[in-house]
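Exercise 7. Given the encoded structure of a 227-residue chain, write a plausible sequence.
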């Protein structure tokens, strides 16, 4: 599905050039659940921005399903990103003044569907993540775990080719973290979702098929995991 080949990324400032990704090479198969792990400043965030078609200023090749999207216009790439990748963040990134239904519906409206076409899709995905009957609630009326389930539903609503979850359990307690990780595992095993989990937490890694460790912008380990 995804091929990164000799990816290098630099940031320029007035004094120096910072080499933040160093000769990154790896392949992601459809249906994999991969953990990307590394300390703060290791390049994890830069790497997922690149994987999620947000950052295109790099050298090397990024092939998605065999095609390079580097020369795609910003407008077209934005539409592709909306359809192809679902993002899930540590802080949930929900709109507080919107209901659960409206938060999950937003990518469909952005993709051109009318409100009359969204109801069935939204209710179906809310049921899938265990939030049936919560569609009229507002984020502040929900627990942290429920808010993260809303964020997962929003990421799933366009049936993306892959999910990127950036520290998805970082703001949750241990019990709730386990519930969210079990949901990711269930989505991977039953729905064959391709999931890339960025984490500091060794517990998260135990749910994954594969671990990629990154340090100082370079991959120092890429190994299959026995689950």
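Solution.
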């Amino acid at each position: 599905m995804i091929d990164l080949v000799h990816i290098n990324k630099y940031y320029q400032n007035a004094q120096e050039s910072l080499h933040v990704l160093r000769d990154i090479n790896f392949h992601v198969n459809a249906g994999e659940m991969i953990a990307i792990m590394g300390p703060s400043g290791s390049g994890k965030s830069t790497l997922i921005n690149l994987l999620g078609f947000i950052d295109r200023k790099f050298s090397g090749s990024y092939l998605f399903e065999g095609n390079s999207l580097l020369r795609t216009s910003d407008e077209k790439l934005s539409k592709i990103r909306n359809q192809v990748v679902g993002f899930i963040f540590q802080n949930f990134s929900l709109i507080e003044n919107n209901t659960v239904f409206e938060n999950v519906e937003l990518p469909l409206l952005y993709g051109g569907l009318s409100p009359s076409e969204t109801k069935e899709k939204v209710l179906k995905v809310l049921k899938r993540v265990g939030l049936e009957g919560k569609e009229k609630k507002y984020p502040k009326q929900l627990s942290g775990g429920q808010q993260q389930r809303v964020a997962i539903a929003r990421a799933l609503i366009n049936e993306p080719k892959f999910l990127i979850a950036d520290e998805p359990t970082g703001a949750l307690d241990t019990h709730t973290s386990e519930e969210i990780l079990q949901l990711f595992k269930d989505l991977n095993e039953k729905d064959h979702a391709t999931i890339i989990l960025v984490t500091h937490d060794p517990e998260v890694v135990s749910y994954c098929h594969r671990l990629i460790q990154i340090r100082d912008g370079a991959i120092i380990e890429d190994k299959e995991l026995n689950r």
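Remark. The chain has one domain: 33-55+71-224. Students should compare their own answers with the one above.
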